[in-house]
């Protein structure tokens, strides 16, 4: 991956991320890469997520196939919203509600947004 001195705000991070994505594509496998989010300006609990919430360079979004955001539903312990923030394979603002299981770290899709389709 990146060296110890490479941060998400360094251009080297984006180049490495792009190379990793190309390796996955060549091997015909999928991968999920997670990153921290920027702190909300108002310090309140997030109600939704945008591409601007992703920590690091804006070019990180260019180095990946799809950009999704995962945010906890307020006042719900294990309920999350997975929101498409754009790119090649999902429509921006596609919303899925998923129920997390802390015991085995799995998720169950329980609901989709208005006019959104269940994945196949």
Q: How would you sum up this structure, described in words?
A:
The chain is α+β, with helices and mostly antiparallel strands. The protein has a domain at 34-112. A four-stranded antiparallel beta sheet has the order 1-2-3-4, with no helix packed on it. The protein has one helix spanning 11-27, and strands at residues 66-72, 79-87, 95-101, 106-112. A hairpin with a 6-residue loop joins strand 1 (66-72) and strand 2 (79-87). It has one helix and four strands, in the order αββββ. The chain starts with 10 loop residues before the first helix and ends in an 8-residue tail after the last strand.
Instruction: Give the terminus-to-terminus CA distance.
Output: 32 Å
What is the residue-averaged pLDDT?
A: 79
Number of helices: 1
Outline, from the CA principal axes? globular
- Strand line-up in the sheet with most strands: 1-2-3-4
Beta content: 25-35%
H/E series: HEEEE
Share of residues in helices = 10-25%
Low-confidence stretches: none
| Rg of Cα set | 15 Å
How would a textbook summarize the main sheet? 4 strands, antiparallel
Task: Please count the beta strands (DSSP E, at least 2 residues each).
Answer: 4
SS class? alpha+beta
What's the SSE blueprint?
Layout: H1 11-27, E1 66-72, E2 79-87, E3 95-101, E4 106-112
Antiparallel strand pairs: 1-2, 2-3, 3-4
Briefly say what this structure is.
With 120 residues, the protein is α+β, with helices and mostly antiparallel strands.
Which features does this protein show?
about 120 residues; globular; alpha+beta; 4 strands; four-stranded antiparallel beta sheet; 1 helix; about 15% helix
